[in-house]
Design brief:
The chain has 407 residues and is an alpha/beta fold. Helices cover 48% and strands 13% of the residues. The protein has an 8-stranded mixed sheet, sandwiched between helices. Helix 11 runs antiparallel to helix 12. It is globular. This is Glucosyl-3-phosphoglycerate synthase.
Length: 407
């Protein structure tokens, strides 16, 4: 049972009464006339073979209000793409699968690369960016939600609650972020959010002084949640990172483009679990180690664009402050776990904090050594300015792939 407390500077929409999903869906069906809705699902082909996606597809099969489902498929051969089209064919909604590794979309990517407009890294950010381009090109929807394909505890009320704030014509929200408690199998999850993001934001506040952007980020209950929704118009001006900084990058862009009273967060699940990344302390290019580096770099870049000046000495101070605050959080979470009867491995938690502290310094060194780094993918407005018919080309490529290979 959620509380009704409003913290920070954005609106929080709670789950107070466990409203039946059928009630939400009935309202969404009426909203559909003014605000038709799409859902974006960024997916690796391997997730079709995993334990979560089959249930997600079955649950979405019961959803009556979605006008379009757009699946971005990464790391798939032609045979695997054919299988994906068959796999998603049980969806009753109009659906399209973007074969990101296919020759048609590769040709579009090459055309964008020739003008330095293509995503520079493979990954979720690139996948999402092309899906958003297709949503804009198709012109089907006025509101769009996005969630991952590895949610083990998925039920269809998640997408209903997620898209409701931007689909309701009586609300003025342009963006909504999902949140939930990361508790599953009798223990706390969400280490990067709990042990890196929140302590690092608090440390940056202490070292850098009062900062509206940091206060804004600190208002989100789960800033790394991969679930969010927009009015479709928002996508045109959105610049997103192609690395693990995607979620922080999206939040940064929304703060830059809109007043905070147009943004909200909503409780979308009582229980939430998905596949877990390894800590990977021995390899900074993998797992939570890479994730922590990318997130720290995203925060430093954003603060720099707001006028913050960084140096080696400042990063050492940030790291020291972060380390102390994060260790204090470990004790807080341990006590929270104990009172709730959850298991808690303090040694593993503190090992994670030690790794994250090292990566805060590494991210700072990278930031200082690469002053011309531009990890953001250009907005679709910029791309269409350079290549006016690019959306039509993308739409045609996706349609031809789906027609040629669909069984």
């Amino acid at each position: 049972m959620g509380d009704f407390y409003q913290n920070g500077i954005i609106t929080t929409l709670h789950n107070l009464v466990r409203r039946p999903v059928e009630d939400l869906e009935a309202e969404l069906m009426s909203f559909r006339k003014a605000r038709p809705m799409s859902l974006v699902l960024p997916s690796l082909y391997s997730e079709l073979e995993g334990p979560a996606l089959k249930n997600i597809v079955q649950e979405l099969g019961k959803v009556p209000y979605l006008d379009q489902v757009v699946i971005g498929l990464d790391r798939a051969s032609e045979a695997e793409y054919r299988h994906a089209l068959e796999y998603f064919s049980e969806l009753p909604q109009n659906f399209k699968v973007l074969w990101n590794d296919g020759p048609r979309l590769r040709a579009i990517d090459l055309k964008l690369r020739e003008q330095n407009l293509a995503p520079t890294e493979m990954g979720k950010g690139r996948n999402v960016w092309y899906c958003f381009g297709y949503v804009l090109a198709s012109g089907v929807s006025k509101s769009v939600a996005l969630h991952d394909c590895d949610i083990l505890t998925y039920s269809r009320d998640l997408v209903a609650r997620l898209i409701y704030p931007v689909a309701n014509p009586g609300f003025n929200y342009m963006f909504c972020k999902g949140y939930y408690a990361r508790v599953a199998d009798g223990k706390m999850n969400g280490r990067v959010s709990r042990l890196l993001v929140t302590p690092l934001i608090r440390a940056l506040k202490k070292v850098c002084g009062p900062n509206d952007f940091l206060d804004y980020l600190d208002s989100y209950r789960y800033p790394l949640a991969g679930e969010f929704s927009f009015r479709t118009d928002v996508i045109n001006d959105l610049r997103i990172p192609s690395d693990w900084g995607l979620e922080i990058g999206v939040l940064s862009e929304m703060k830059r483009n809109y007043a905070t009273n147009r943004l909200c967060q909503v409780d979308i699940a009582d229980v939430y679990d998905h596949k877990h990344q390894e800590l990977s302390p021995e390899d900074a290019s993998k797992g939570l180690s890479k994730m922590s580096m990318d997130i720290a770099k995203a925060l430093f870049r954003k603060l720099a664009t707001n006028g913050e000046i960084f140096s080696n000495e400042k990063f050492r101070t940030i790291k020291a402050s972060y380390f102390r605050i994060a260790l204090d959080f470990v004790e807080t979470y341990q006590n929270d776990a104990i009172i709730n009867g959850l298991t808690f491995d303090r040694h593993k938690e503190e090992k994670a904090v030690e790794l994250f502290a090292q990566n805060v310094m590494r991210a700072g060194a990278y930031f200082l050594d690469n002053p011309m780094d531009t990890p953001f993918i250009p907005s679709w407005n910029r791309v269409t300015s350079a290549i006016p018919d690019i959306k039509e080309q993308l739409l045609e490529a996706v349609e031809l792939d789906n027609e040629e290979f669909r069984p």
